[in-house]
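Recap quiz, item 2
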Amino acid sequence: MAITRRQFIKRTGAAAAGTLLGPSLFNNPFLQKALADTIGDRYFVVVYLDGGNDGVNTVTPVDNGSGNLRTAYDAARMSLNLSPTDLQNTHIGTDPNTGAQLALHPGLIGLKSLYDLGKVAIIQGCGYPAYSLSHDQSRTVWQTADPLSVGTNGGWVGRYLAANYGGTDIPGVNVSDRIVGEFKTTATSVLTIGQLADFGFPYDPFGGGSDDNAKRTAFNALCNAASGDAQPVIKYIGESGAATLLASESYPALDSLYNADRSSWSNQYDAIGRSTARDLREVAKVIYGVAHVPPANNVHARVFQVSNGGYDMHSDQGAANTDGQHYSLHREIGDSLELFYQDCADMGVADKLCIVIWSEFSRRIQQNDSGTDHGSQAPMFVIGGTIQGGPTGGANGGVYGNHPNIDDAALNPDDGNTIYKQGSLVTNPFRSTDFRDVYGTLLKHWLGMTNPSGLVPTDTVPGGGDPDDYWTAANFDLGFLP
Amino acid sequence: MGDQNTVFVANQDEGLVRHLLRRTGFGAKPEDVTKIIGMTRGEAADMLLGFKGKEFKPGGRYIEDAHNKWVKYMIKTNLAVQAKLVLYWHHHFATSNAKVQNTKVMALQIRLLHAMCNGNFKDFVKAMNRNAAVMEFLDTVRNHKDIPNENYARELQELFTVGVKDFAGNPNYTQEDIVQIARAFTGWDYIYNSGESVFHDYDHDYMADFPERGPKTIYKSTGGFGSGGMTYAAGAADEGPQEIDAVIDIIFQHKDSDGKSTVARRVARKLVEYYAHPIATPISAADAAVIDQIIADSDFDTNWSISGLVRAIVVNDTFYDTAAVPPFSASTQKSVTWPIDYVVSTLRLLRMKLKGKYQYVSGGDYQNVRDQLTNMGQTLLEPPSVFGWDWESAWLSSATLLARYDFARDVTSARDGGSSSFRPETFFDLTLNQPDDIVNAVTDILGVTDQLTAVERNALVDYLTDNGANPTLDLNDNDTRNRKLHGLFALVLQSPAYQLH
């Protein structure tokens, strides 16, 4: 349940979770404003493409427009380029900067179907200043929304949850074996689940359950004792254990409820047969349980995360070939999201649904022999029933943000990230959109925060830095959400 | 405050000795504790670390076979100290069969980890340069002279040696360094079946092909080498397979912005985090001083002796921080056990083994151990990324906690009577009938007696007595023993205290 500001302040649990991860969160003046803002009767799903998804082979220029995007693309992608023929069935809008026709990778036909329905917005060139080409560093930057390490703690979604929910609420579910980085801060508010069906608490079958109550009482007492400990790790384990016990008594029923009512939908996820489909089905089960009238349970989750790995394609990436690695992953994501959206639409919650897709970086514009090394900015996608997306969304057919300038000659050598190519040094393109503007727009226009600034702090320009490179003026109204 | 000459005193320091055994091996058995009481920290460290290692190789046709043989080996080995060190290196040099797709070269890598785990770290890295599984996983085999693949050059620095940033937060290398190091690693491949590395000079970055490339120079802006950097191949005469060793020699001379050995500081820090406790980033001056002291005590920055470094860690006071007993304060250091440690230690302490080729626990859900470990977040031979695993609190979420609770239930309900069942009657004094004594005996076996608060002990006593309804217990009674003694073991294995080490 969403709780009030007063309840939140009273929650010693939440305050101590802050201690574990650093004290500054609860001193943040911006949070005080945020406390009353909530997602309401809506759902938010974060999808992470782990490893660095190749942006230019996800949103690809079909022609040059008024610039030379296509020419530069063909020059850099000698064997990995997607031809205009490969892209003929997946056209989307145009690049706001050059007017070039853009298209999705042919593997993303599922996403293209949603685009045609007006449900997909594409935000090009999302990145941050002084970008890192390390998976770990860049992922952390995206998760914390803090490129310059100015001192936020936990993840950007976690800070939002901490501001709005207390320790015994479970507003967030990660379909994962770990609490993902962007959800960190509110440890016990985020449940991690592999499969709902397996989420029951394990009792010894000896004695036909006659000792279960005694065990439950003792286990809960151990967790509660630890929850009150001053030592933050012990406290965290106690709180997590107690929350897990409680959730284990309500979440498994969501699996049977969904399977009983929606077996034909469930079968379609099986037909895709990929982990993203299975993981999104677990989210669908929870949403169905939450949206169910009359309430079938005591479940109130609103914010979810799934991820898919395998995008770190230094080799054997494949272009448009259907047995290629990149095609396969795009099919998995596109088909799974299309089905998940349609499932939610059939439940009647499409207009209450918003999905955002991100990756820690894109790939180098210049390919290596059969793959691509780490690059800078990347496109993001936002999907949902009320998105200003698709052919009639915004001025450019659902496309926001400029395509990165991928012409070697135009790149800014000051960025310092160079690659060695046949005797010369080549740079990575600069971002066109700060990813924090996307987060801010989501927080303001979907998650109900009137002022998200405290959760996505703007950069300060370090001494001697080029002010143009930094993000000092936030734009939390990018336009892809009303 | 203590040092290598500090003696473990009887009836006083048993908790510290248990801690030493638990952190360097898998759980502490009472007979091993007795052996060490009376020794100094240094003597105990020498005894534990002076092992003559075994070059264990987990064979088998499929990766599941290799995984299970490795787990089985850890459960029964008397070289737990070596096995524990190998686990660290499996994280440090994280390599996943999900990409390598070659069980044989994965097994060969695990054998190499056993062979080199306590030797010279510089030689270790040089060996990893040529290790087939690493070359496959980090794309050395796809690093060609026409278009270099940067993956290995990046991870060699970021993960194997210096790290991205130094203690002061300054970068240790630039993108140009990655590019220049990638050139050294062109031309390498391995033979699929034997895993033997081979160098093809026709695919190496020779000046003859691309004369404009010029000499190979690294660290012009970091490493303390001055603006000229370090040139490892000035001309054709220096080029060839020896370049990858020359690069390592330079990396090991790299100094951070404090003028200290960058490699020594990073590896010492990682091993302190592995054996002792997490260290916050940015590192505090106090923690940095401890790391520097450990390096000074071991001369790790010149001799690169891993066993010397670990010895310096386990005789240092910092190693004993997490052995603190309640009441704890907000600043008390604690550390979360790895899933593999949780599983192996539990089975060793309960004198159990896993069953059959699939190595399953014969109670509960009869899940094989690989699936159990996967659910806990740690599949050996398949680390989730080049960074290995996330440690500490990242091990614990509802899904992974539930997997630990499942394992605890499975273990304590293994009653099929065979050699892999849980049979406390074979090692537990069934004449104990006072709940306090029974709780003590169980927590002694599992090594957490001194970690429980009075409230937690009371919860366990209340469980045994059903809140006082049965003030004494007859453990010789089958029903009582199966219900309450098995149940008590399960609860302690599921307790917050047992997730820590």
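Chain B touches chain A through 83 residues (CB under 8 Å).
Chain B has a mean pLDDT of 94.
End of item.
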